[in-house]
Every structure is written in C-alpha cells, then in structure tokens.
Specification:
The chain has about 290 residues and is of the alpha/beta class. The protein has helices spanning about 35-45, 60-65, 70-80, 85-95, 110-115, 115-120, 140-150, 215-220, 235-240, 260-275, 280-290, and strands at about 5-10, 30, 35, 50-55, 95-100, 125-130, 130-135, 155-160, 170-175, 185-195, 205-215, 245-250, 255-260. The chain has eleven helices and 13 strands. The strands form three sheets. It has a nine-stranded mixed beta sheet, sandwiched between helices. A two-stranded antiparallel sheet has the order 2-3. Strands 7-13 form a two-stranded antiparallel sheet.
Length: about 290
C-alpha cells in the first residue's frame, strides 16, 4: 500500500497572528524567506509523496499563486540574468502535483479532512499541519511512512511536552510496542483526548501535526459531532476509529517548532536563520553583539 496524497488544511483564519493575517494567509508568513506552507510541501515531496491536496478557503489565493508558475516573474528574472533564482522559483511549482478544494465554513480540522474526501478517494493518505515545522535529516513524514508500511494502519506523530502544556494538544494514552526496530519510539494508542486539562491528561505524549490515515476516517468523521470549541475534532474521530482499527503513535526524531504561536515562530526564525549557509555566521555575530 503506497501513500499517493497528502492533505494540507489551510482554511484557518490565523487569528493568533492578527493584524499580519488580516489580508494574507498565515501559511504564507515566512521563516526567513520561505513561507511556512512551503516547509510542509517540501516535507511531502522529500518523503516521496507525489500529490498535495490543499483544503483552502476565502482569502487564501496567495497559496495557489505561490505553488503556480509565475511566467512574468520568471521572464523578468531571466532578463536580469538571475537564472538561479528563476530556477528556484520554478522548482516550487514542480515539487508535487497540486489540487485544491474549499472548506466553505471553518468547522474544525475533522471537517477540513472530510472536505478532502472526494479528492483523496478510498485510499490511505497523509495530513500535515503547516503550523508545525519539523526539521530533521529524515523528514518526520518519511519516518512515519516506515511504520505505515509495516502495519498498514493509521499513524500519528507524537512528542513529549511539559505537563502544563498538554491543554494545547491532542494527548494519547499508549502502550509501548516492544519491537527493537522502533527503539522505544512506537506506541499502540489505547485512548486519546483533545486538549485535556493537565489533571485529566492520560500522559504528556502530544499529537503533533503529522498523520497517516486510513480512509475509514472519512466514515468515522462524518458521524462525529462537534467537540472542543464547537468544532469537528480529528482527535475525536481518531478516538472512534480506535474501536475498529489500531492506531500507532510515533515519537519522531527531529526538532519541531510551533510556528502557530508567536514565540514558537520567533524560535523557528532565529534557529533556522542560524543554520543558513548564506547568513548564519553574520546572524550569529549579530546575536552575540546584543547586550541582553
Ligand atoms: C491541532 C489538533 C491537536 C494537535 C495539534 C498539533 O490543534 O487538533 O490534536 O495536537 O493540532 O499541532 P490546533 O493546534 O490546530 O489547535
């Protein structure tokens, strides 16, 4: 069983970044010079998945334009002899194939995934939330595909978070899979709950925005009532899926930035800028010169 499609829900309003997101999608906010959403699409492409399905909405056209060919811009750059920049832009539109469907009313992550059902069809697929930027030599999604290839079941990315932070996440209760191949990183999920209080949380293993889902999730989600925040929650759907199918939680290797949060966004900006060959050194010097 191969995964052919990755769903990227990008219809959210981005209220945490207002006023920056009043007239532009939050997914287009750049970390240094690359929009958040491009990090996610690059992860899809480098994991070997050939197609991205965007679940988009009003005011998000900039995302479509970003992944399209810009003939005028390319011509202009070619005319100015900026061939390498032109090639870099062209690469963006050729990384994978793109399809778009609109979520007419933002009714939650579960609803966004249901909106992609017709474009995904009756096959397993990946989901990436572009707020979560994950940096690692082997992409997070590629690590999860290994688990999927072995078991053919749904897999969610998990990470340990401080107890006091559990109420920002879906939290799992899981049983460690003792198989040596997974080096203590794989859990068979027994239960999960969306954004619990620290007291009610079954663990501190938080779901991070990477999922591989079997198509059974569509049937389950269409029968799932709105949950936390009045939205159809993917976590509630997964909890129901657990009744009929196993789900695995994989503690991925890599650094994850919560770019949906202002401080997380700044951390990503600083750390990724420091890693850049073209500006890392100069930026490090600048940071050191600050008298903090
Ligand atoms: C969503 C999911 C949550 C998950 C989180 C990961 O929440 O509902 O289960 O832990 O993404 O980033 P959101 O951050 O959209 O509120």
């Amino acid at each position: 069983m191969r995964i052919h499609k990755a769903v990227l829900p990008v219809a959210g309003l981005g209220t945490r970044f207002l006023p920056a997101t009043k007239a532009q999608p939050k997914e287009m906010l750049p970390i240094v010079d690359k929009p958040l959403v491009q990090y996610a699409v690059e992860e899809v492409a480098s994991s070997g998945i050939p197609m991205v399905v965007f679940v988009t909405g009003r005011g998000k056209q900039a995302i479509e334009n970003h992944f399209d060919v810009s003939a005028e811009l390319e011509q202009e750059l070619a005319g100015r002899g900026k061939e390498s920049l032109r090639r870099q832009l062209r690469r963006i539109s050729g990384m994978v194939r793109f399809a778009y469907v609109r979520q007419q009313i933002p009714r939650g992550l579960g609803d966004a995934i249901l909106t992609a059902q017709d474009l995904v069809g009756e096959e397993p697929f990946a989901v990436l939330l572009s707020d979560d930027v994950i940096v690692n030599e082997t992409p997070c999604l590629k690590q999860m595909l290994k688990v999927f290839e072995r078991y053919g079941r749904s897999v969610v990315a998990v990470q340990r978070v401080p107890r006091k932070a559990v109420s920002s996440y879906g939290i799992i209760r899981g049983r460690l899979v003792p198989d040596r191949d997974w080096q203590g990183r794989l859990y068979r999920i027994e239960d999960m709950v969306e954004k619990p209080s620290p007291k009610a949380a079954p663990s501190n293993l938080a779901v991070i925005g990477r999922y591989i889902l079997t198509p059974t999730i569509f049937r389950v989600l269409s029968a799932t009532a709105p949950g936390a925040g009045g939205e159809i929650q993917l976590t509630d759907g997964l909890r129901r899926l657990l009744v009929t199918e196993p789900i695995y939680g994989y503690v991925f290797e890599g650094t994850r930035y919560d770019a949906g949060d202002k401080l997380g966004f700044l951390r990503a900006t600083v750390e990724l800028a420091l890693q850049r060959p073209d500006m890392g050194k100069a930026f490090r010097r600048y940071l050191k010169s600050l008298r903090l």
